[in-house]
Structure formats: structure tokens, C-alpha cells
């Protein structure tokens, strides 16, 4: 996908603020400081459209970024930040859970994990929950540039095994600094949002026009 336009839309604090134009949505989940903002900026070839919070873990909104007229990236609050109270974490958990289960335009969740370290218990819990709830999920292993290339296979294996990913399913390795994985990731996202395919209602209209008796 060639990105001609990208803009920040809103920091939504509830469903009443979600966009209503029905564009497909790709959500980003992960621990604070895992590189969600950097990944968004890399995908849209912008340096600082998506900005890292000055207080990691404090953000409790869904940040919407519109790309062309094709989709939204939805940056979810980071999880696993120690300085956030248990009560606050529970509130955020319900907020995010409601979005992930009830948001009709949601097409895919990119769960970001840090390739340098084994996935945390929070990472494992998120992945297991998404799989259990049948929410489409793609694991993206970020910060590949921070470790030697020779160690990539070993770290990918640790990520896959720690999360309990199915045999044959691999994390997508990514580096915002190197642009590694960018094209492959865009290919997956385009497939998830059916980019370039005709809208279903268009096909229905064409059928009705070419075969009026069928309607």
C-alpha cells in the first residue's frame, strides 16, 4: 500500500468517540515501550505522527490514526506497567476487552513483543486470551536491530515456544530502525482488510443489475 495521507484522528476514551465511517481497523497491543508508535511511524513513513507517551503506561485511551481512506491503526494502552495500580489495570482491561470483542470494524490485532526478551506473563496472557476468543492476531517481534542477526532464529523460537504458538506459525520479525519486515507486514495487513477487493454490496448491486429477476 502506498501511503499518501496519514493523520491522527482522536484519543478515544469510550465507544461514543470511535469513528463511525466503518473503515477497517488494525489494533496494536503490547507492553509499554515495546515499539508500537515506532512501528506505526515506520509503516506510514513518518517520523513522529505517532508519539511515545512521556509517561509510559499512563495512556488510557485508544489512539486512532487514519491511513489514506483505507484503514485505521488503533494504538491500545500498553499493558504490564508496574506503576499503575491494580484497580486501574482492571479498568483498562475491561475497556480494551470490550473494544476487542465488540468492535465490528476490527480486522486484526498486531500483538507486539520485544524480540530481545522472552514474552512476559502479560504477553502470554494476552495471546492466550486473543486465541481463546477467536480474535485474529499476528505476533510481531520488534527491535530486531538490537540483537545480532545470527541470534534472530534463536530468539524467534523462544518467542514462538513461550507464547505456545501453533506449529508452523511464526512471529513476524520487525525493526523500525531498519525497515525490516515492513513490506511483509503491509502485505498481511492488506489481506486482512481485503485491500483492493470490491465491496460486497457492490457485487450485490451488479448481480441485481445484470439479473433483475434474481432480486
UniProtKB/TrEMBL annotation:
Family matches, as InterPro entries: G_ENGB_dom, GTP-bd, GTP-bd_ribosome_bio_YsxC, P-loop_NTPase
Top-level lineage group: Bacteria
Cofactor: Mg(2+)
Alphabetical list of CDD domains matching this protein: YihA_EngB
Magnesium recorded as keyword: yes
Keyword entries, A-Z: Cell cycle, Cell division, GTP-binding, Magnesium, Metal-binding, Nucleotide-binding, Septation
Domain EngB-type G: residue ranges: 22-195
Xref: PANTHER family: ENGB-TYPE G DOMAIN-CONTAINING PROTEIN, MSS1/TRME-RELATED GTP-BINDING PROTEIN
Record-stated family: Belongs to the TRAFAC class TrmE-Era-EngA-EngB-Septin-like GTPase superfamily. EngB GTPase family.
Known role: Necessary for normal cell division and for the maintenance of normal septation.
Designated name of the protein: Probable GTP-binding protein EngB
